[in-house]
């Protein structure tokens, strides 16, 4: 990776941020089925978004790309009514940027670094749930304004501090799997088409 983002890089960040968020949002529709299905949607979203992020890193292998994507995702999450802790997302993006550019700066995608970087970035998926650790009553009270009483009770039963802690570990594993899938897809399809150059 290298520094100095160009106009093309900013365009790539914008386009892939939209793609990343759309995949996340559409996968999140599983949550309409039941509270437990929310996790299924997140699993699908994390796996598929690995392709989006690896493609972005292949197109713009530069420091700051994941930080900016994280910032834009956080703003979009805030606009859709999520707690302010989603603003930690660019922090995960910054750490992911550092990991992706470890041991110097390269001109092209580094698959192993991209996989680990994506797993770190994916940890933001836990941030909307963090208020459950210290302000669960107000969190569920606010949620109760948007869902049915039965759905809310299901959320309370499933979304506990223990569940969220286990989920954070699962996010890392899923992030590694999504990043791995992304590198495989990039290598098999995008390189042949010359889309990563």
> What is the CA-atom radius of gyration, in angstroms?
17 Å
Largest sheet: none
Helix proportion range:
over 70%
Figure out the total of helices: 9
Could you tell me how far the N terminus lies from the C terminus, measured between alpha carbons in angstroms?
A: 14 Å
In percent, how much strand structure appears in the residues?
Answer: under 5%
Number of DSSP E strands: 0
SS class? mainly alpha
List low-confidence stretches: none
Mean model confidence by pLDDT: 88
Order of helices and strands: HHHHHHHHH
Per-chain topology:
Layout: H1 7-27, H2 37-59, H3 65-79, H4 89-100, H5 111-121, H6 131-134, H7 136-144, H8 149-158, H9 161-193
Helix pairs in contact: 1-2, 1-3, 2-5, 2-9, 3-4, 4-5, 5-9
Structure in words:
With 197 residues, this protein is an all-alpha fold. Helices cover 70% and strands 0% of the residues. It is built from 9 helices and no strands. It has helices at 7-27, 37-59, 65-79, 89-100, 111-121, 131-134, 136-144, 149-158, 161-193. Helix 4 (89-100) packs antiparallel against helix 5. The model has no long low-confidence stretch (mean pLDDT 88).
